[in-house]
Amino acid sequence: MKPITTLFIDIGGVLLTNGWDSKARRLAGETFGLDYEEMDERHHLTFDTYEEGKLSLDEYLDRTVFYEERPYTRDHFRTFMFAQSRPFPEMIEFICRLKAHHGLKVAVVSNEGRELNEYRIRTFGLGRFIDFFISSSFVHYRKPDADIYRIALDIAQVEAAEVVYIDDRPMFVDVARGLGINGIVHTGHDATQKELAEFGLMLPE
Length: 205
What we know:
The chain is of the alpha/beta class and 205 residues long. The chain has 2 domains: 6-17 and 87-198, HAD superfamily/HAD-like (Rossmann fold, 3-Layer(aba) Sandwich); 22-83, DNA polymerase, domain 1. The protein has helices at residues 22-32, 36-51, 57-64, 74-83, 89-102, 114-123, 136-139, 147-156, 170-178, 189-198, and strands at residues 6-9, 105-110, 132-135, 163-167, 182-185. Helix 2 (36-51) packs antiparallel against helix 3.
């Protein structure tokens, strides 16, 4: 087995909470008096296009919320959306220490719309330990399209066998494995720490 030189990591569900999942959308429906079922249907019809970087956040909101008059502004709603993000400090600290100890490259491979992604990168300081951001809205491919992993390998300039990919979605891990990338389905900090140790990536006692 080749030594691991690089980590590919998802953001939502691994380093941070999901950016705009069904729980957040349901809370938005309750907070803003929206018909959740209608908003959710509109969301599913257009969110992939937003995550691929082909719509701005305002255009996404035009289609899902502001297709009719509302008693609040887009800025108010955007602020609510952004406020749903929370960090997983234990995972962030662990990845920072692992990177420093082993001299790893660390790349994000994530499905996120541009504005939400940029907010999360800035707010939670992800740029201090992430070397590359291969985000769907930046490269115009979404997981599970295998091309997003090929792009990540090209940008990081590493072979698939040198990489461990961490994601909470088993399908995405399976697609990466199909390219020869080592994979871990993230279920929590402790389990991922143990699995990384099997690849020789551990911290001193």
